[in-house]
Amino acid sequence: MVELNDQRVLQDVGIYRYHHPLEDAAAYKDRLEAVNARIDEYVKTGRAVLASDMFTFDGSLAKGRKMTADFSKLMLRAYNAEADNCVRSLRSGNVRTAVARLERAMAAIERLGAIMEMRVNPDYHQVRVEELELTADFQMKVQEERERAREERAELKEQQRVERELAAEREKLDKERAHYLGVLEALRAKGDDAAVAELEGRLHDIDAAIEANDYRAANIRAGYIYVISNVGALGPNVVKIGMTRRLEPRDRVRELGDASVPFLYDTHALFFSEDAITLENELHKAFADRRVNHVNARREFFFATPAEVRELLLEKVGGLLEFNEKPEAPEYFQSCGLWPAFDA
């Protein structure tokens, strides 16, 4: 029996394990070309199928050998057709299913050619299995590289957005400071000491804001850790733990709740850290065994409650200025009663 349910096979296998670990997709492509050359060599030299050379037909050894050679070509064509079909239909790393199909074809050829002691050369079969494994590895590596490139573009875009925000904020603060300095000189000339003192306090606040803005621009590791949930899209007890360098971290949370999910995210915690990157990594490691996606570690969703994340944050950073344990999720709760009923 051959299991043909690809989803069940993948669930049984678990996380994809590379059969031939190589550096990148280009390396897999080169290895596949070498394997294809070996396949061609087996076929050209007649070593792909093994058969007896002592089979006679109509009392003639010569006729028997010709019949064996013709039958070998036919069997090899059938086997190669099945192997090529397995390669073409390979997807999502379902190697086990493809290899099982190929082994079934190999066994059928051996049964049909038993009288001539005919069988597919095990070495040739192993090369074709290696081709399947490398093809699956290549497909997975290409998928990983595309996902990584997409995420790197998204990170670069986010970084550029942060840089623009910080530059715009600095420009605004500089203009505001220059304005207040002009007004301050005028007030001093008038001798309005009370107004001067008030304005100097405002200038002090602006200078502090400029200093903080410059620190954020210079220190790429500084940012906000956020803990958010989306009970309507992800269900209860699932949180996303991430970080952003935005001046206003809630802008990032609002972006995550775009048209790709039916409801907005709820924010449970926001915490500014001078080394948000390290803190985020520590939180992810602490909940590593509770990841929703165990294949792509860049997906930051975890089976955890906001309270569990809060306890860990308290251990690492102390008091939190803001924390909400229960999600408000007004759109979700207001929508539930209006959903149509579906039969189970």
From TrEMBL:
Alphabetized Pfam families for the sequence: SNIPE, T5orf172
Residue span, Bacteriophage T5 Orf172 DNA-binding domain: 233-316
KW Coiled coil (keyword) present: yes
Keywords of this entry: Coiled coil
Any coiled-coil regions, as ranges: 139-179
Keyword Coiled coil listed: yes
Name of this protein: ATPase
Lineage of source species: Bacteria, Bacillati, Actinomycetota, Actinomycetes, Micrococcales
